[in-house]
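Form P-L/3: holo structure prediction, ligand 6-O-phosphono-beta-D-glucopyranose.
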Amino acid sequence: MPRMMPVEPFDLVVFGATGDLSQRKLIPALFHRDDQGQIPPEARIIGTSRRDMTDEAFRAFAQGAIEKFVEAEFRTAANVKRFLDRLTYVSAEATQEDGWLKLEKVLAAAGERVRIFYLAVGPELFGPICERLGSHNLVTPHSRVVVEKPLGKDGASAQAVNDAIGKVFPEPSIYRIDHYLGKETVQNLMALRFANALFEPLWKDEYIDHVQITVAETLGVEGRAGYYDTSGAMRDMVQNHILQLLCLVAMEPPSSMEADAVRDEKLKVLKSLKPMSAQDLEDKVVRGQYRAGASSTGAVGGYLEELGNPDSKTETFVAIKAQINSWRWANVPFYLRTGKRLSQRVSEIMVQFREVPLNIFKKTADDLQPNRLIIRLQPDEGIKLWLCVKEPGPGGLRFKYVPLDMNFAEAFTTRQPEAYERLLMDVVRGNQTLFMRRDEVAAAWRYIDPILDKWKEGSDSPKPYQSGTWGPSSAIALIERDGRTWYEAPGT
Ligand code: BG6
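OUTPUT (holo model):
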């Protein structure tokens, strides 16, 4: 039986309630938590956007979202109705006064309780919304604000966005979501490292050869080209998700799971990322852009055609060889890559251990393979540890490379909750452990900014790659130059 901690009654106000994030992620996540009995009956969910809409129309919208994004086996007429009955709607203009008095009245009706303002809107509206929340005295000691990336386009603009939010909300009330941190397997990475004594003594450059972090998608920009073209893979994926994964692999054991204990350690990693020299920017970073090709659904067009702009230099793929200036990781490169329209949808972390110091089996096996630990975030979440074992039978000592394989879906039959379910309930509980602190965001930008500056100043373009491949050939060269290869699970 899943163990669940009910939360106290709360009011959740979702700005941008009729948008994509709300439809795809927030409403389905809240529905699941409600279905599991985690949300108390008095809790209210208040949708807000500039659109004029009745409560009934908003409920119909939410019902559509549930039917589309919640698997049929989890919904019944009764549990859908119970959830929809919690929803109300207030139309309010982020940049004008319309609607705010109504919101004030609706919130006042419940008295003092945890109040969450979820800003599922573009970052240009974070400041104006926070300003109005302040001027209408909606921010109480138990209020929290939740924001999504992109938090700015670079370090300077992120600072401006954070300043605008910080004028109204103190840092401990600001929840910066990186949904990767809410993924079950990402949390499992912390469990693997810090709830088991086995790996920690080996978790350093004496025993680890290198680490790879891959977040590969088969989808293209899927109707989000307008946003994506101002962002690109570096801001969309690397500055946040990939660097957060790197932090969890590389951080020192925190003294506890208290939010600041964990975030202090992640911050140290971000601050220790070796800044790129001008030569490194040439040699250790690859950007690509997809062209027409094939995906699992058939032939697909290229990014420029989808965008309708033949001149865009926005990258849809990035590979980086990152290094960390610390004793633990001094000689261990971290190869990072992410891209759209790649050959396979897979997010995984691969830790490759060093080879044995001496192969005593040379006569029969001259190519012992190094141990590899694979933490597969999605799909088929699980952990594999690749080992050399003796092939059965006579004929000398020959080896087979086999995985100790832990597939979470097979090992645990309970449904794996979506990242947003966990994160939303953590906001209600006031647990900041899985959210990014302001200084972390700033440190991540300090690493990324010089790369973006170079791309902006230079005249070169992203390297083209055919859809359905693993990115541009220079990304393969990036790792092969070091005598290593990108990991692909044997048999895939
Ligand atoms: C989002 C990005 O943060 O993460 C998207 O904006 C990307 O471009 C998505 O597709 C990937 O998330 P997931 O959970 O599907 O791996």
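COMMENT: The chain has a mean pLDDT of 93.
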